[in-house]
Amino acid sequence: MTLPNFLIIGAPKAGTTGLYYTLRQHPQIFLSDPKEPFYFLPPEKQHDIKNMADYLALFSNIPDGKVAIGEASVHYLGNPASPKMIYNALPKARLIAILRQPADRTYSHYLMYRREGKEDISDFSTIIQSLENPDISIKRKMDYLEDSLYSVSLKRYLSLFPREQMLIFLYEDWKTRPDEVLQKIMAFLGVDASINLMVKNENVTMKPRLPGLFNFLNSPQTIKNLLKKVIPYRWGKEVINRINQVLLFKSPPLNPTDRHRLTKVFRSDIIELQDLIGRDLSSWLR
Fold first, then answer.
1. Most exposed residue of 78, 160, 204, 270, measured as fewest CB within 10 angstroms of its CB?
2. 95 with 55: CB under 8 angstroms?
3. Residue 147 exposed, middle or buried by CB count within 10 Å (0-12, 13-18, 19+)
């Protein structure tokens, strides 16, 4: 029975996809496919992997020579139940987190939900207003909050795991000094740090020009039930990928006023985070 010995726990929209694909190139590192099994989440948050047998199946038939075995379910960081669930199953696991300025992260998360058809609110200022006011309730409010309150989240982990089992970076580290980040991660995981890895760029958050058509084309059943009857599956995927390139365009940046408002929501948590991880986060507070 093989279980992971490391997890990339978050945060969402903070560069973990690029890190996942970069680390997969290392001959001594195995990362699960899918990237995010979401196993160590409450049942209502789980996806396809809902029992230990299915989880273990992700780590079966691992090639020889793999030293670090892991997965990258980024909602583990913010979910209150995850630290205890992980500790009960993997008390010796090494944990990696990348943290992004919370206003920017929340906006990127919102754009992803819009693209995926999971967020009905078209005006981001409405999202900000709900986060500013505890009395305003919206469907995804806790998702936006939990995944951006890093100090609160990390304290839950540090109450269970020794600090030396955690490696914490800032999004800026990964964007500006990826080779340095990779060197630290390889040392942390006990793999050969002399291996040169090609840094993989993460997906840029995009918006669909025609959300209804985009969501239809990217529904799993579209390919299975329609295209598969006419052309091979891989060809169908290629057709849809090319259509997506036309339908998607880069989202506008978060405007400074909204960023300032949203940063105020997370200000106290940012200040606590500075002390917790020993990093100057004054640039996050501007």
1. 204
2. no
3. buried
Q: pTM of the predicted model, to two decimals? A: 0.85
CA distances from 5 to 26, 83, 87, 88 (A): 16, 15, 12, 13
Q: Of the CATH numbers 3.40.50.10210, 3.40.50.300, 1.20.120.330, 3.40.50.720, which one belongs to the domain with range 6-203+255-285?
A: 3.40.50.300
Who contacts 267 (Cβ-Cβ below 8 Å, separation ≥6)?
A: 285
Domain ranges of the chain: 6-203+255-285, 216-250
What is the distance, to the nearest Å, from the Cα of residue 266 to the centroid of all Cα atoms in its chain? 19
Backbone angles phi, psi at 242, to 5 degrees: -70, -40
Cβ-count burial 2-35 (b if 16+ within 10 Å, e if not): eebbbbbbbbbbbbbbbbbbbbbebeebbbbeeb
CB burial class (10 A; 0-12, 13-18, 19+) of residue 282? exposed
The two tokens of residue 260 are 């300032």
- Return the percentage of the chain with pLDDT > 70, whole number: 83
